[in-house]
């Protein structure tokens, strides 16, 4: 479990900003993927939701594996050397910079979050390969232009960037606002850049019930969407095959044993022409 007192990069205590009386999305997700950075309140709602919808654990694990496959594809097959990971959440195994820098040690990664508990773990994220560069920004998805300005301190925005927004856009209640935020971020990136998205979807009664239970817990709400709404985030981009699909179905590895899992989460990768 996390320590009660943690420090951010500037040396300021973040305890006052961390609310341990309500569930927290990053800690909740960390619990589902087998991490250690969560409190009792997160485990309680997690266990409650497991009773309602055990399949959410599969969503968490398969979404994490999708991240790895997408980053390996971009760094390996497409030669992408810059990654902007917005709404990164808490570090677990195989974070974006670890996957990318195994393929390309000179890759540069910028993580973006404005959450105090994620900020408290920034030092763990910053341990990247010496040939590349890994940075963490305390910035807000709702101000895309500020995110891009800050990211430009580490990334060369005249060269292709992979924009990663995984399991984050569900926190934006209004769908058109969520699309606008994605458009504004992509507008600041050059041709050849890629958009990578995954999110939980309203594709079963169990997932809808799990979302309702989570949202009634006092946590910041997370809204599950229709599959065509996930696809809408890629308007104007060239979808990489196989398109917008369930997360286990996106370019599965030969040893993946979850490709047939009917998880309620969809993903895609699109290229900016």
From TrEMBL:
Keyword set, alphabetical order: Methyltransferase, Transferase
Signal peptide residue numbers: none
GO molecular-function terms, A-Z: methyltransferase activity
Pfam families registered for this protein in UniProt: Methyltransf_19
Biological processes, Gene Ontology terms: methylation
SUPFAM superfamilies in the cross-refs: S-adenosyl-L-methionine-dependent methyltransferases
EC number of the protein: 2.1.1.-
Class of enzymatic activity (EC top level): transferase
Designated name of the protein: SAM-dependent methyltransferase
Organism: Streptomyces heliomycini
């Amino acid at each position: 479990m996390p320590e009660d007192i943690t420090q951010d990069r500037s040396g300021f205590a973040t305890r006052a900003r961390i609310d341990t009386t309500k569930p927290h999305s990053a800690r909740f997700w960390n619990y589902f993927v087998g991490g250690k950075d969560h409190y009792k309140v997160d485990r309680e709602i997690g266990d409650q939701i497991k009773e309602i919808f055990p399949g959410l654990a599969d969503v968490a694990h398969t979404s994490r594996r999708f991240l790895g496959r997408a980053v390996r594809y971009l760094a390996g097959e497409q030669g992408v050397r810059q990654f902007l990971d917005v709404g990164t959440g808490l570090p677990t195994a195989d974070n974006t910079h670890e996957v990318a820098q195994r393929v390309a040690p000179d890759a540069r990664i910028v993580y973006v979050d404005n959450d105090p508990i994620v900020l408290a773990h920034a030092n763990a994220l910053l341990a990247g390969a010496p040939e590349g560069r890994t940075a963490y920004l305390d910035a807000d998805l709702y101000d895309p232009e500020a995110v891009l300005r800050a990211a430009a301190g580490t990334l060369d925005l005249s060269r292709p960037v992979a924009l990663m927004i995984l399991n984050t856009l569900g926190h934006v209640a209004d769908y058109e606002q969520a699309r606008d935020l994605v458009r504004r971020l992509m507008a600041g990136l050059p041709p050849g850049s890629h958009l990578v998205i995954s999110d939980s979807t309203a594709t079963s009664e169990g997932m809808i019930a799990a979302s309702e239970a989570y949202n009634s817990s006092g946590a910041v709400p997370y809204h599950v969407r229709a599959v065509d709404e996930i696809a809408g985030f890629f308007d104007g981009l060239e979808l990489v095959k196989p398109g917008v699909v369930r997360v286990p179905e996106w370019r599965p590895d030969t040893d993946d044993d979850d490709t047939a899992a009917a998880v309620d989460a969809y993903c895609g990768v699109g290229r900016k022409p």
